[in-house]
Amino acid sequence: MHDHNNIWILAEQRDGRVLRVSHELITRGRDLAAKRGGELTAAIFGNAIDAADLQGLIDRGCDRVIAMEAEALEHFLVEPFARCLQRLIESRKPEILLAAATTTGRTLLPYVAIKVNAGLTADCTVLDIEDETGNLLQTRPAIGGNILATIKTPNHRPQMATVRPRSTKPAPVLAERRSGVIERLPAPADLLDSRITRTGFEPLDETTRLEDADRVVCCGRGIKKGENLSLIEDLAEQLDAAVGATRDVVDRGWLSYPHQIGLSGKTVAPAVYLGAGVSGSIQHLAGMQTAETIIVINSDPEAQLFRVADIGIVASLFDVLPVLTKTLRAAKE
Amino acid sequence: MIHLDGSVIMTAMRIVVPIKQVPETNAVRMDEETGTMIREGVEAVVNPLDLYAIEAALQRREACGEGKIIALSMGPPKAAIALREAIAMGLDSGVLLSDTRFAGADTWATSYVLAAAIRKLGEVDLILCGERATDGDTGQVGPGIAAWLDLPVATYVGGIAGFADGVLTCRRLVEGGHELLDVQLPAVVTVVKEVAAPRLPTLRGKQRSRQSDIPTCSADDLDVEESNLGLAGSPTRVVKIFRPSVARQCETLRPRDESELAEACDRIVEFLQHKELV
């Protein structure tokens, strides 16, 4: 197992530009490399990836970047991505491989883990190195965030994990000039067949892009009817926030499913989450309790959301939201 | 029908829905020594996210006019109850994969056994899974089954638009939008809630489920290697389980009139400014 000595991250791109989650993984990777030793390598798949962005991976702390490129790799398709990643793992033998727990990472890594006979831990929020063994310690929430479990992979390599987006800060460009190797490789043509074809893409509007959002304003059943959504939307606009919803709101048809936060919806971890008229069921908490800051507005002082909040107002959202929106607007001017 | 190797084409679809029985309550107890869940004494239900896969399967069968849907579950003997619930919703049959040697399996070893069972079922067009189970929360078993069977997998599917010439047209919910995908069958598809609203079991369905025979498969019935099963076959080990510490102290504002309300809103804005969010 001695030839497995590198820490790898799987960087992601969209339209040839490297995504922020990749820089978050560099933060994780550098931290582990400091404890474990070894090089930090970023692997990335795509087509005509921006050269400055690849250099940016070096500037932020990677020692090596391996970019495998082909037209067929422009968008994520599980089979060609998995074959390329498997080829790299088998030829370069990383000891640790981290990917973001995005729709891509959470599809690609479980597929590849089987192909390369490796252990995989999903959606980790804390990563560390075990002193005695050098094994990766992977901590993740389970059962809707009610427990945390620490998991290790003693005998299989690479040790693979997906890491929850926004669970750490993106690595900044380092002050000192760094040298690193960028390998741009054409993807082998025999790896690129796919039984899935991507025929189009329908973007969600900005306010629905919850997983990229740094700020989220979420409404619960307390808004009483769909027409009252404008109160939420006005506040979201002032805060430059995406709009989230509880299951109740989605099931009543007031907002569409891509807005839903919670156990059967999305998990968000924004810098600030503001819940208005949200009671805070266990199922909803599972999707938002790792937010950095939590603000609550609810007329019921017993609402569960107060228990995980940093600051809250006990009052009707119909009274609070117009005033809060106005105060925010004034503060920005 | 399409054989796993791509040969033989007919019209009726054969669909497999792997389901998991999960604890209903949030008061789940853990075995501190093995780090696995203690399932005894906890109310168990079909994983709520699997209900969307069951519904999507029923709608596919209805769209095709005919077909067979088989539910599979790996678990203790009482997981047969989950299979009966799936049959009550309208699935045709259920197979329980139960063996003490399967116990303690992680997602690698679980997908291994499920894939072996699907292989044994023979011709299968579509494997429909829930996005993840609400207890383990990994979402790794669906893609894992696809990898073992060397099938394509479309995850996070929020809509199935149609099926023609062996190709399933899907909408996949990803960051920032929906991808439109043509998925060549056989394939694994994992679905999210927006794919369909699950129906309730009918009285007739419940009667049928009570009368259904649920065959049990052990490791001996499957073409599996003993060393790949259960805890022994699992690459990952749980080393510690603990409760997250909630360190937050909520500053609660209780305005009694309009001026106090304005003050409370000022305080929120000040709070945001302090955090450099405004």
> Which pair has the most extensive contact?
A-B, 92 and 84 residues
The CATH superfamily name of the largest domain in chain A is HUPs
- DSSP helix count of chain B? 7
pLDDT averaged over residues of chain B: 91
Task: Please give the radius of gyration of chain A in angstroms.
Answer: 22 Å
CATH architecture of the largest domain in chain A: 3-Layer(aba) Sandwich
Q: Which CATH class of the largest domain in chain A is shown?
A: Alpha Beta
Tally of individual domains of chain B? 2
Helix content of chain A: 25-40%
CATH architecture annotation of the largest domain in chain B: 3-Layer(aba) Sandwich
Question: What proportion of the residues of chain B form beta strands (DSSP E)?
Answer: 25-35%
Tell me the total number of β-strands of chain A: 18
Across the major sheet of chain B, the strand order is 11-10-9-12-8-1-6-7-13
Description:
The complex is a heterodimer of chains A (333) and B (278). Chain A is α/β, with parallel strands linked by helices. Chain A has nine helices and 18 strands. In chain A, the strands form four sheets. Chain A has a seven-stranded parallel beta sheet with strand order 7-11-6-1-4-5-12, with helices on both faces. In chain A, helix 3 packs across helix 4 and helix 5 (229-239) packs parallel to helix 9 (317-332). Chain B starts with 12 loop residues before the first strand and ends with a helix. The relative contact order of chain B is 0.17. The model of chain B is unreliable at 6-10 (pLDDT under 50). At the A-B interface, helix 3, helix 4, strand 7, strand 9 and strand 10 of A face helix 3, helix 4, strand 9, strand 10 and strand 11 of B.
